[in-house]
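It is worth pausing here to work through a concrete case rather than discussing structure prediction in the abstract. The textbook approach is simple: state the sequence, then state the predicted structure, then interpret. We follow exactly that order.
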Amino acid sequence: MREAPPRRKGHHLVNAPVTNRLRLTTALVVLPILALTACGSGDTGGTAAVGAQASPAPTDDPVAAVRKVDSIAALLPADVRKAGSLRVGSSVGFPPGAYYPNGPDKAPAGQDIDLADAVANVLGVKPIRQDASFETILPALGSGKYDVGTGNFGVTSDRLKTIDFVTYINDGQGFAVKKGNTELKKVTDLTQLCGLTVGTGAGTTFEATLTARKGECAKAGKKPYDVKVYSENGATLTALQQGRIDVIMSTINGLRYQASQAASQTTFLGEYHRLDVGFAFKKGSPLTKAFRAAVNELIEDGTYARILKKWGTSASAIETSRINPPEHA
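Step two, the predicted structure:
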C-alpha cells in the first residue's frame, strides 16, 4: 500500500544497539495503537494524519509465574536443550498482538509476546527475539534463520505445504472503514468491495484472498476492486484517513482493538473468515510437539486464559493446541 519506501530490516531486540532499533518507521513510534497488524502496512509518507500517543500496555504479568515443566522440556531436541535458547522471528507493530507501547527502543508487548515467553518458560529456554517484517519470516524459517516465527500467522492450505504450525488462537479476516463511512456496513461477500480500493498487508492471507478472488467482480458485471499492499506497519490507517483507500482488510482482533481506540476513527465491520493462528516452523521441524505440549499446559493451568483476558482476546481462545490443522472452510 505504500508507493516505494525502503523496507524495514529485521534487528535483534535482545542486546541490540539503540541505533538499530530506531530504524523502525516513525509510524511505530507515533501510532502504535493504530498500527493494524503484523501483516504489515506501509507508505511512510504523510503519517501526520493522526497524532496519537502510545497506548500503555496492561500492567498484569501472568507469564512471571510460569515455570519449566521437565516432561515437556524433554520433548525438545537435545541440541536445543543444550543451547537453552530459541531464535524467534517476530513481527512487531500491532496491538493487541505485538507492538511497542514505549517506543522501539524498549521491549515489545502484546498477546503474541506473552504467549511466546510463556511457552519458552515451560520449555526452560530463552527466546532470542528478532524483529522482522511479516512477509520475510516464513521464508526465513526454511533457510534456518529462525527456529520459530510469530506474527499472527493464519493457517492456510497453501502455507501448510511449506510451513508447520502449532496453533494458539483463533483469529481471522475482517474489514474496517473510516468512521462515518456508511457505504459498507458488513462485508459478507467480496463483490461488496467492487469498485473500491482495499488496503492490506504484504504476504498476508488477506492479500492472497483478495488477489485470488479479484475476478468475482467481473463475473458479477462490476468494476474490480483495487488492492494496495503495505510492507510496513503504521501507514494503512493514514491511507484510510487521507482517502487513498476505502476499506482495510486485516485481522479480526487487530481491527477490533483499533476501532476501540478513539483516535483511530475507524469502524470495525465484523468478521469475514475465521482462521487458526499458530507459531510457525519450517516443514518437518522437531520443535512442534514440544510447542504443542507447552501451549496445552498453559491452557490447562489457566495461564493461557489470563493472557487472553489481559489483551482482550478471550473470544479467540482455543480449547486445545493442534499441529497443522486443516484450514477452516
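Step three, interpretation. The beta strands are 11-12, 85-90, 126-131, 148-150, 163-178, 197-201, 226-230, 247-251, 266-282. The mean pLDDT is 84.
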